[in-house]
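Archive transcription. Copying these from loose printouts into the bound notebook so they stop getting lost. Printout 1 of 2:
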Amino acid sequence: MDKDGWRKDCWRAAAVISSLQLNTFSEPIDWRQAGTVVGAVSSPAAAYNDGNIRWMTGLAILGSTGSIGCNTLNVVEHLAPRFTVVALSAGQNVDRLAEQIRRHRPRLVAVADEAAARRLRDLVPADWTGEITVGMDGMTAVATHPAAAIVVTAVVGGRGLLPTLRAIELGRRVCIANKEPLVMAGELMMRRARECRAEILPVDSEHNALHQCLRGNTLTEVHRLVLTASGGPFRTLPVEDFPHITVAQALRHPTWMMGRKITIDSATLMNKGLEVIEARWLYTVPPEQIEVVIHPQSVVHSLVTFVDGSTMAQLGVADMRHPIQYALTYPERCAAPVAQLDLTAVARLEFYPPDPVKFPCLRLAYDALRAGGTLPAVLNAANEEAVAAFLDERLRFTDIPAVIETTLARHDSRPTTHLEAILAADEWARREAQQLIAERKR
């Protein structure tokens, strides 16, 4: 499905969610109550009992063929038979999806369009009786499958908003790995989570680390949330060399193996800017209480400083299977398929302030968050378009923040009291950013 296609699907689906009226939070919300009902998930899946596990928990994954999706299935296999995979969604990678179908036998899968569905039908096992769906309707069907007690959302970009919101409305545990839905509609999503008693558990390593540090504490005890960033591949590169950065250089992240879009976001530090916006909604703290520090070793994933001067940090090896498993099994901790951190092998732990000249995207994210309204949605959409153009070699690396800043400056922000306003801002920002990109090519 092309970009215009999924946005039209979003508009159609928005009519179903016409009741999404918001009011600004009138009082501080304890992070433990912000859309979270702590405790075990009651699964609609088939019963299982080996003396320790009473239920096989039904699991749906949006973006199953990407890095997070594949790691999630690796964790599922490690924890077998605790989870049963009931639904998967992918884009065009039907070869990998067909292999996942052979291994996990989901009841429902979704792909981008009919052409991908036809290719998939030729690859699936002859004895598989599941259903193949397409497009935004297919993704939403995966997110709302009646046997899925847990939904892992790992779809790149804003197209994950509608399916994620629908899963929240059904009161599911949503393990959220994609930043864009909370950036675009964080206030709306958290309110619906509280109303529907849904759980939102972060899979992103930094927010997952904050969640672990905050266990047993209240919001009034928090002085500051500190998100760590590796600094990406250009932390030490002289700023005068930034205009000559190539796609290949930007995709060489020093620590993490990720998808192309998020890897570029890490190189510009927009990834961290989006995480600041996420943290504001996940933990109901103002921007002034959220800090970003550069930590090249990527051992400390986040920190929380408390009003009494104490600081708690979550440390671990750089392996996404740890936060994925934490979100799937919370509040329980289980042996994970990851290496234990050897502190004696950690030569040093360094922390630096981010360079605002090299990485203006971080400032733009803070500015959009403070201004509020539809500006965070505009920030996200303009960034997606600019990153896509850079990956296609239609835009220089240093033009990414320039396109975003100009798009933000031209936007007439609106309150996010309706989903339609968010989708309209997203659509407008993409058109505006595309025009700016075309002008810079000439």
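Printout 2 of 2:
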Amino acid sequence: MIDIKNDIDYETEIFFQMEIVGQKISNSSFDHCNFSGCDFSESEFIACRFIECEFKDCNFNVTKLTGSRLLESRFENCKLTGINWTSLSWTGITVSAPMTFESCDLSFSVFHSLSLPGLIITNGKAWNADFEDCDLTHAKFTNTDLKDARFNRTKLNMCDFSEATNYYIDPNSNSMVGASFSFPEVINLLAAFDINVKGPL
């Protein structure tokens, strides 16, 4: 099994069922690597780079990504709870959808003030996630549970909320031109107006 160490460049490596819990990894880069069934909970990646990597069935519970960079990386069925995504290095990143999350748990994550147009979060959960002041233009939240997620002064133009559930988004404090929603959850958008909706839903 390949070990992950500091100051190492990894290319096209496969990391399978690796456990690095509560440890620190710094200044390493991962280019086109595949991570499957790995546990990185409570660890910290400092100034690391992940370029076009894939993560499947991995545990990143309260993992820190201090000064690290993620480019065109994909997460599937991963636990990514309590991560402060603002601690990453976003300088110079202009690509659309730097991260894709499929069937992941992003609850209690912080994305505050990040520019992430085209972000993809589908078929997952993002309870209590902080999306305030973000640019999420053209993002996808399809079939995602957004219970208590925070949207305020957020750019949601052309976003896809099809089949998303439990969201509260105030149309008065967010930009939502061309965004898509599904019935009956779209009724949640009226909650900010303190009105009564009569008739069958």
